[in-house]
Design goal:
The chain is α+β, with helices and mostly antiparallel strands. The protein is 50% helix and 17% strand. It contains eleven helices and six strands. It has a three-stranded antiparallel sheet. Strands 4-5-6 form a three-stranded antiparallel sheet, with helices on one face. A hairpin with a 5-residue loop joins strand 4 and strand 5. Helix 3 crosses helix 7. It starts with a helix and ends in a 7-residue tail after the last strand. The mean pLDDT is 90.
C-alpha cells in the first residue's frame, strides 16, 4: 500500500513516534490515521512492558505554583539516560504531567495515570507513547499536590531540574513575602534541611545523635566528666544544620533564616512563618 510522506509526517507530529514506526502503523492500519494512532499506542504499551525491568534513574523534577499561589505541585519524571532527560520532548512531557497534577488536584500516581488530557489520552497512554518515541523506559515516579488556606506557596527549580522545592509561608501574600518565599525555597534546595524547626525532630533521633557524639568523644579520649557537655553542644550544632529556621541564611552569612523572616515580617507589617516545605532530588528514595 502506498502511504504518502505527508501522512507519515502528520502521524509523527501527532504521536512523536519514529518515521519507520509511523509508516508501519499506517500500512498495518490500511492508511486509517486514527487506527494508526491506536496501533502506535498499543505498540507503546507493549514496549513499556518489555522495559519494565529497566532502571529509569535519570529525568527531571518540576515544582510549580498557581497564579494565586494557593496551590502548588511537584513531580519527578524518570527516564534511562541524561540525553533523553535533556530533550525538549521530555521537558514538555514533565511540564504536562505537572499540569495534570493541578487538574486532578492529587499527587496519587494511580489517579494521575488514569487522568485524561485535552486530546482525550490518559497520562498512562501519553507515557506509553513517549516510551515508543524515545526508546527508553519513562516513569512517573512521584508527585505531590498542596493547597493553602492561610498562606501562599513559592517554588525553586534549580538549573537543570534535578532538584526542586516548594515552601508554604503562613501570612498575607505580598511582594516582600513572595521574595522571602522564593529565597527560602532556594535555601531548602541548597542546604537540605530535615525539618522546619526543632519540633520536627523526633526525640529518638536526638537520642541517637547524642549517643553517637558521646561515643565519638570517648574514642577521642575526652574526660568523662565533659562527654555529655560535648554531646549536647554537638546536638545544638545538629539543630543549626538541619532545622531550616536555624540554618545560616545562604544569601547573608552571619544571619539565620529566622533572623531574615523576622526582619521581613517587621518591614512588611506581616507576621510570616514557614508552615510547610518539600524538597525533591532526582534519584533519592521516595519519602517526602
Amino acid at each position: 500500500m502506498d502511504i504518502s510522506l505527508d501522512l507519515v509526517k502528520k502521524l509523527r507530529e501527532k504521536t512523536g513516534a519514529g518515521i519507520t514506526d509511523c509508516k508501519k502503523a499506517l500500512i498495518e492500519s490500511d492508511g486509517d490515521f486514527d487506527k494508526a494512532i491506536e496501533y502506535l499506542r498499543k505498540k507503546g504499551a507493549a514496549t513499556s512492558q518489555k522495559r519494565s525491568d529497566r532502571i529509569a534513574k535519570e529525568g527531571l523534577i518540576f515544582a510549580r505554583v498557581n497564579e494565586s499561589r494557593n496551590e502548588s505541585a511537584i513531580v519527578e519524571l524518570n527516564c534511562e539516560t541524561d540525553f533523553v532527560a535533556k530533550s525538549d520532548k521530555f521537558n514538555d512531557l514533565a511540564k504536562a504531567f505537572i499540569e495534570a497534577v493541578f487538574t486532578v488536584k492529587s499527587g496519587d500516581i494511580n489517579s494521575l495515570l488514569s487522568a485524561k488530557n485535552s486530546s482525550g489520552l490518559t497520562v498512562q497512554q501519553v507515557l506509553d507513547e513517549a516510551m515508543a518515541s524515545v526508546g527508553e523506559k519513562v516513569e512517573l515516579k512521584r508527585a505531590a499536590y498542596f493547597t493553602s488556606n492561610d498562606g501562599f506557596y513559592c517554588e525553586y527549580n534549580h538549573l537543570g531540574n534535578k532538584v526542586a522545592s516548594l515552601i508554604e509561608i503562613k501570612g498575607k501574600k505580598s511582594e516582600e513575602g513572595i521574595v522571602l518565599g522564593n529565597d527560602l525555597a532556594m535555601q531548602i534546595v541548597a542546604m537540605k534541611p530535615l525539618t522546619i524547626d526543632r519540633t520536627g525532630v523526633s526525640a529518638e533521633m536526638i537520642e541517637k545523635e547524642k549517643e553517637i557524639y558521646r561515643v565519638q568523644a570517648i574514642n577521642e579520649g575526652k574526660p568523662e566528666n565533659i562527654v555529655d557537655k560535648i554531646a549536647n553542644n554537638k546536638v545544638e550544632k545538629f539543630y543549626e544544620e538541619n532545622c531550616l529556621v536555624e540554618q545560616e541564611y545562604v544569601k547573608e552569612p552571619g544571619k539565620t533564616v529566622n533572623d531574615v523572616i523576622s526582619a521581613v515580617s517587621k518591614t512588611s507589617g506581616n507576621d510570616y512563618k514557614v508552615k510547610s516545605m518539600v524538597r525533591y532530588q532526582l534519584g533519592e528514595t521516595i519519602g517526602v
